[in-house]
Amino acid sequence: MSPVTDRPSQPSHTPGPWRTNIARRSDDAICAAHVVGADGSNVAQVAIYEQHEGVSTEANACLLAAAPEYRDAANAYDTLIESAQEILAAYIRRDGHDGETACLALLDLLDGPPWRAARAKYAVATAKSENPQRQNNDRADKIEARHG
């Protein structure tokens, strides 16, 4: 078992955060749904299937827009697992940790700040993907902070 080290250093996708850009008709039906990057560039256009029961174009757009945050959360969990592997490897080789030290180090890792940071990143991504209003409020708050 060896730590994963083949993670790319820089993402090749459009930098995040991404947000949804939903255009609505006068009857509030969606007529266009896009995911745009931080620089305003179009990342994706989401097909409009509002006429099909149970399919939400806006929900699909929100899930896509949360991709950079989900990637950050996955990287945080990956780092957490790599750290746990290093602790366990040092214990197994018996060159750095005795049993009690290894257990305490794992508890600190898996129930301490690294774990809470990874969970927080995941919670941000999940909230963004499930709540289109949050994306709009976050954007409005940033605009207000810049101009207010």
State the helix count.
Answer: 5
Low-pLDDT stretches:
139-148
Distance between the termini: 53 Å
Query: How helix-rich are the residues, as a percent range?
Result: 55-70%
Based on Cα principal axes, name the global outline.
elongated
| Strand arrangement across the biggest beta sheet | 1-2-3
How much strand? 5-15%
The biggest sheet amounts to:
3 strands, antiparallel
Number of strands: 3
H/E element string?
A: EEEHHHHH
Summarize model confidence as the mean pLDDT.
Answer: 78
User: What's the structural domain tally?
Assistant: 1
Work out the radius of gyration: 21 Å
* Multimeric status of the protein: single chain
Main structural class: mainly alpha
Characterise the protein shown here.
The chain has a three-stranded antiparallel sheet with strand order 1-2-3. The radius of gyration is 21 Å and the shape is elongated. It has helices at 57-65, 67-93, 99-110, 113-130, 132-147, and strands spanning 19-24, 30-36, 42-45. Helices cover 55% and strands 11% of the residues. The protein contains five helices and three strands; from the N terminus they run E-E-E-H-H-H-H-H. The chain has one domain (19-147). Helix 1 (57-65) packs antiparallel against helix 4 (113-130) and helix 2 (67-93) packs antiparallel against helix 3. The protein is mostly helical.
Write a brief structural summary.
The chain is mainly alpha-helical and 148 residues long. The chain has helices at 57-65, 67-93, 99-110, 113-130, 132-147; strands at 19-24, 30-36, 42-45.
